[in-house]
């Protein structure tokens, strides 16, 4: 699941990003309403988590702008303003759920996952398939030829990104920026280590290799039977 957190409190945003990533989700963050709106318009997110009181453009204005442009990504409003009138106003502006601060992360996670499932039930792609390999973004289940594949959170994020771009070359820089959030020398061997581990889990014991190294370019996951 890919999330965007629009929150101007850096400590709060960092906590949420870290917590979501620890359970295997991809989380980006924006520190003000303008940046958040641009990312929400340009990115492919499953759920947006939006604080109400933001600099440059408040949270409700961000949601209103998104809805006016027919962006239907589910929005959970996270705010210290928790009175009934505040919640009603947030929902009527276009929010799909509203959670008042302080909150328990377990409840926030459950609500976000429920919004993602609801979106998936309306036809959004939540399952990726390449050959006999299948990845469910919502349940975090991976299987090949009907056999369950156990992945660590980082491995799941890596495989999800590769499968999202199935049949395309994915560069090391793309992986560093989208799976690790690193912005430095792409020659680091962290990718090689994780690719090797992932390959051993999804390809070992199968006649058909799905995960390929494209020499001098990057990596590609594809169904070689085609």
Structural class by secondary-structure content = alpha/beta
Instruction: Report the strand count.
Output: 11
Approximate helicity band: 40-55%
- Tally of individual domains: 2
Number of helices: 8
What name does CATH use for the topology of the largest domain? Rossmann fold
- First-to-last CA distance: 28 Å
Q: What spatial order of strands do you see in the largest sheet?
A: 2-1-3-4-5
Largest β sheet strand count, sense and barrel closure: 5 strands, parallel
Taking all Cα atoms into account, the compactness measure Rg is 19 Å
Bulk shape:
elongated
Please report which band the strand proportion falls in: under 5%, 5-15%, 15-25%, 25-35%, 35-45% or over 45%: 15-25%
Regarding CATH, which class of the largest domain? Alpha Beta
Low-confidence stretches: none
Q: What would you note in describing this structure?
A:
- The chain has 8 helices and 11 strands.
- It has helices at 10-22, 33-42, 59-68, 84-93, 105-120, 153-164, 172-180, 190-202, and strands at residues 2-6, 26-30, 47-51, 75-79, 97-100, 127-130, 133-136, 141-144, 147-148, 211-214, 218-221.
- It is elongated.
- The model has no long low-confidence stretch (mean pLDDT 87).
- The strands form 3 sheets. It has a 5-stranded parallel sheet, with helices on both faces.
- α2 runs parallel beside α3 and α6 packs across α7 (172-180).
- It folds into 2 domains: 2-120, 3-Layer(aba) Sandwich (Rossmann fold), CATH 3.40.50.2300; 127-221, Arc Repressor Mutant, subunit A (Orthogonal Bundle), CATH 1.10.10.10.
- Helix content is 41%, strand content 20%.
- The protein is an alpha/beta fold and 226 residues long.
């Amino acid at each position: 699941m890919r999330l965007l957190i629009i929150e101007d409190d850096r400590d709060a945003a960092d906590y949420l990003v870290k917590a979501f990533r620890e359970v295997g989700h991809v989380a980006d963050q924006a520190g003000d309403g303008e940046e958040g709106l641009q990312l929400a318009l340009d990115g492919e997110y499953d759920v947006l988590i939006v604080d109400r009181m933001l600099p440059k453009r408040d949270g409700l204005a961000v949601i209103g702008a998104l809805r006016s442009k027919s962006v239907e990504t589910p929005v959970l409003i996270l705010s210290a303003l928790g009175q009934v009138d505040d919640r009603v106003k947030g929902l009527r502006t276009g929010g799909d759920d509203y959670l008042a601060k302080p909150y328990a992360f377990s409840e926030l996670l459950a609500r976000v996952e429920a919004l993602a499932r609801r979106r998936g039930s309306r036809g959004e792609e939540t399952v990726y398939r390449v050959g006999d390999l299948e990845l469910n973004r919502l349940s975090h289940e991976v299987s090949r030829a009907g056999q369950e594949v156990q992945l660590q959170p980082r491995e799941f994020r890596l495989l999800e990104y590769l499968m999202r771009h199935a049949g395309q070359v994915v560069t090391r820089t793309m992986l560093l920026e989208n799976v690790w959030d690193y912005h430095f020398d792409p020659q680091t061997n962290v990718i090689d280590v994780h690719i090797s581990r992932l390959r051993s889990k999804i390809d070992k014991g199968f006649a058909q290799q799905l995960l390929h190294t494209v020499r001098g370019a990057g990596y590609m996951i594809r169904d070689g039977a085609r």
